[in-house]
Write the C-alpha cells for this entry.
Amino acid sequence: MKLCVRICKNIRGEYTATCPSLPGCTSRGQTEEQAKAKLEEAIHGYLASVNNFVPEKLEEFVEYRV
C-alpha cells in the first residue's frame, strides 16, 4: 500500500502537505521539510487511531508529490 502525499506552496509562502487517502490528514509548515515532518506525525497518529497499527518504516509507504 502506498500513500500519496501532496505538498503545495500557498499564497502566504507556507507549505501545505495533505494525504488525500486519509481524510483530514493535513499539515502546514514554513518550509517544505517542516510540512512533511508534521504530516508524517499526523499519518502516524491517524494510522494508530484507526488501525492500531503503524508501520516501522513509514517512508516505504509514502510517495511525495510536489
